[in-house]
Amino acid sequence: MKKSIIVAGLLAAAFAITPAKADKLDDVISSGTLRCAVVLDFPPMGARDDANNPIGFDVDYCNDLAKALGVTAEIVETPFPERIPALMSGRVDVGVASTSDTLERAKTVGMTVPYFAFEMAVTANDKSGVKSFEDMKGKTVGATAGTFEAIALEKTVKEWGVGEFRPYQTQADVFLALSQGQIDATVSTSTVAQANVKTGKFAGISVVGKAPYDIDYVALFTNRDEYGFINYLNLFINQQVRTGRYAELYEKWVGGEVPSLTVNGVYR
């Protein structure tokens, strides 16, 4: 019995003097820099201005987060398919990249409560004859690979049993293909659809209606085991809403009615 007590005491002492592992939150503050993965071909969430500077809702959100932490923001341009790999390889500290909070992604990374919410819209080539979501049946359609809307649209095409789905690397590729008639229609967030039509860069396309998909709630993400940092990010999102900054950024980059980030019966 005495021997057991001695061994237990030694183990307890050993654990007591073992240095605690620093949290990512501490690492970011110590480094003085917050590296954010941001998609810069996804206006109005992320884009580049005429001087090639990053702009958009997600860019401002990263800058706000860095300011709250007392560090400098570093925008790391990250295409949609590379968002999670960029985190896993250590190139970034956090994803501020309009990332859908799927259960599959949550197996790999730690996701926060929603910081933005998207509705889905159909954009069509004016010569395609597509005037609604139902008109897409049997047509050639496409979307940005790996996005919420691409996964949903590909599934729909398979269920229809007719037509073709084509994945693209970037949103710009999708709208260029749409303008050139390589695809007849696409589903994207309403913010992206309106922004791309308004640019005038893609002739002969129009937003023709809504797509009957769920609202796409998107989250910030970091390493799955960084609980301290995830807790901080959740509180930061809460503060952005409470202070009115979320509404301010939405008005600046999107306009119109600010979507609620709550899910009835789940979060308030």
Terminal Cα span: 53 Å
Helix content: 25-40%
Number of DSSP E strands: 12
Based on secondary structure, the structural category is alpha/beta
Order the strands across the largest sheet as they lie in space: 4-1-5-12-6
Detail the poorly predicted runs.
Answer: none
In one word, what is the shape? globular
For this structure, the quaternary state is: single chain
Main beta-sheet strand count, sense and barrel state: 5 strands, mixed
Work out the radius of gyration: 22 Å
Q: Give the topology string: H per helix, E per strand.
A: HHEEEHEHEEEEHEHEHEEHH
| Percent of sequence in beta strands | 25-35%
Number of helices: 9
Q: Averaged pLDDT, please?
A: 91
Could you explain how this protein is built, in words?
It comes from Rhizobium nepotum 39/7. Residues 33-257 form the Solute-binding protein family 3/N-terminal domain. Pfam families: SBP_bac_3 (PF00497). It is found in: Periplasm. The termini are far apart. The longest helix is centred in the N-terminal third of the chain and has 16 residues, at 2-17. The protein has a five-stranded mixed beta sheet with strand order 4-1-5-12-6. The chain has a five-stranded mixed beta sheet with strand order 9-8-10-7-11, sandwiched between helices. It has helices at 2-17, 24-31, 57-69, 83-88, 148-160, 171-179, 190-199, 227-242, 245-253, and strands at residues 33-38, 47-48, 54-55, 72-77, 94-100, 109-118, 120-125, 140-144, 164-168, 185-189, 205-210, 216-223. By secondary structure, the chain is α/β, with parallel strands linked by helices.
